[in-house]
Amino acid sequence: MEKKYLTPVINNHQIEVYIIRRGQPIADQILTNLFRLKELQNHENVEFQTRNILSETWLLLLKDIQTNYKPDQTQRFEQPDRIRSMLSFIHTHYKDKLTVAQIADAIGISEREAMRSFRKNLHQSPIEYLISYRLNEAKKLLLHSDLSVTEVCFQCGFSDSSYFGKAFRKAYGLTPREFRSQK
């Protein structure tokens, strides 16, 4: 089991982060499974069903990785800690006004190198990732706090509530108020 199913994922150095994007067949199946898991948790005695869905999801992940992340022995791998360190810096300082220069300076590389690392590993810029992370944190606050939408906006590092609303709607298809009312 370990050699056949775990090692190909765990030891694949091309994968720092696995991003699930809607609109891709395997990603859509993985997301469907995750939503099924969430729904199952509202019921009792679902351990076997949960295990089966997790196994199916792992096999989908493995299939996608084997198709899209073939090891290339000649490729020079980046230091795994580089992207991890930048992500950690963003996660710690997302509430602050951040620039690419600050993110790069935090680990001692140039802005251009930071941009290159993000594009290569996450297929987005550091600022796109930052906004996505802020929006995800905003979702959590909207669901689990009584803060006003404006307070959530500022708590998550947005300095303009109008922009926050537009970005939230673009990402999730709902305004922050509509999202909160669905909980």
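(the above was protein one; protein two follows)
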Amino acid sequence: MEEMASGLRFPEGPIACADGSVILVEIAAGRITRVGADGTKTVLATPGAGPNGIAMGPGNRVFICNNGGFTWHEEPGMLRPTGQAPDYETGRIEVLDLGTGAVTRLYDRSGDHKLKGPNDIVFDPAGGFWFSDLGKVRGRDRDHGGVYWAAADGSRIIEAGFPVFGGANGISLSPDGRVLYVCETETGRLWAWDVEGPGALKKLPWPSTHGGRLVCQFPGFRRLDSMCVAASGNILVATLVSGEITTVAPSGEIVHVAKMPDLMPTNICFGGLDMRTAYITLSTTGRLVRMPWHEAGYRLPFG
């Protein structure tokens, strides 16, 4: 494992670029940052509030899940979110034009319902995108999470899976685009839906509240964050509290566990010519690391 950068303010959402750099968010600083292959940090934009998951999309644009902002607990060597920011307005999907640096708001609601805390995002092969909404946590209550699909041009958004009671976090598609995976943070559960079309998921009947099928119930006290998929179809989940990257087979078996030097490894993505370099955000300690991985990652659309 090699440390690429430190001093980041709760990094998440890494995008591996062809030149060896990584674009990521610093949630606690409200900014989008590029970390060069040599560790140089360059601020690309400061949308404010809580930029969270990001994905490269069409037109040289970065699509941003902005959760609307957190409150924070900080002590030496530890930074972590604790709740809803006092100046919270709403969650939203924003777009960063890498050519101009301009950030525009694309969506802040689905129908009559405001987005609460958009968290993670993945593009489908046709150019639309799926995203998760974790909801927001307050002192005495919390929102339900959900799963959404939206068009990249801002013309249509669909609430596809709701409610995800423990908060919908990491989101990924299988390499063939036919299965959508979502992590439920507080319950330690990995869910899946068969994709039937843009915004259309095949739903299981009650007692599944959102229609998903359970792929894996993680053991012990583990909270789930973001994820990515390998070219093999395996699902790699950033696992909080235990501080691990956990690989789950599509059949639901845990097939590999890699221990990380942080309680909250929040995201993993792949890059390099052979897609065998893993980039991992270690968020409570503010670091981005890279390491060789034992299997190749899946090359994302626009990525």
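Reviewer note on protein two: The domain at 14-223 is CATH 2.120.10.30 (Neuraminidase).
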